[in-house]
Amino acid sequence: MNTEKSTAKAADTARLASMIGLCRRANRLGCGTEAVYGALKTGRAHLVLLASDASERTRRQTANKCTFYKIPLVALPVTKEELGRMSGGGETSACAVTDPNFAQAISALAGTQEI
Hints:
By secondary structure, the protein is α+β, with helices and mostly antiparallel strands. The protein has 5 helices and 4 strands; from the N terminus they run αβαβαβαβα. α2 runs parallel beside α3.
């Protein structure tokens, strides 16, 4: 039974990685905290993704900014390294999705892990 849950989680993570990669190829993904904060400030962000091992300061600042701008924040069950790989770059703590359709699809795949 535990193996089934692990397999399901791996499949969900693979679908999530695929959707994030597609979003990046469509140039609708800003990676890194500065890019995320810029997208929030200019109103382009529709969803913010946060790695599970982001620092406490990054988590707090990002959560505060998302609350202020009323943008959903989703904590992903992936590390900074994995999020960076999904987004096509190096390690990254946060990414901003700048397309409403991608934001909806990624949010649905991520499940109810909203902060």
